[in-house]
Amino acid sequence: MKRFRNESGSRGHQRLTVAVALLAAMGSVAVQAEAAAPQDPAWHSYVLGPATAQVPPVDVESRGTVSHLNTLVKGKGQATTLTTVAGGAPASVLLDFGKDVAGAPWFDVTALSGSPTLSLATSEARQYIRTRAATSLSTAAATGATQVTVASAANLEVGNTITFGTGASAQTRTITAFNTTARTVSFTPALTAGLPAQAPATSAPGAPSSDESRSLAGVGGIDTLQPTATGRVSGSYHGGFRFVLLTLTSPGSISLSAAGVDFQGVRATPADYKGWFLSSDDELNKMWYSGAYTLQLNLKPAGLNGLLDQRIYDGAKRDRSIWTGDLLVQGPTAMSTLGDLGAGYVKSSLDVLLATQRADGAIPGSPDFSKGRNPAGSPLFYSNNYSGYGARAVIDYYRYTADRGYAVKALPALRAELAYNDRSLTANNLVASNDRDFWQASQTGEVTKYSIDYYILLKEMAWLERQIGSAANAVADDAKAEAIKQAVNARLWNPQLGAYGQSSTHPDVLVEDANSLALQYGFVPADRQASVLNALKTLWTPYGAIMGPGLLDPTGHTIEPFGNGMETAGRFTVGDADGAFDLMRRTWGPMVDEDNPLYTGGFWEFKNSNGGVNRATASLAHGWAASPTVQLTEQVLGVSPVDPGYATWNIKPHTGDLKWAQGSVPTKFGDVAVQWQSNTKTEWFTLHAETPETTGGTISVPVGDRAAVTVNGRTVCTAGSCTAYQGTIAGGYAQLTVPGGTYDITVSRG
Question: 265 CB contacts (<8 Å, ≥6 apart)?
Answer without folding.
Answer: 102, 103, 296, 297, 299, 300, 301, 304
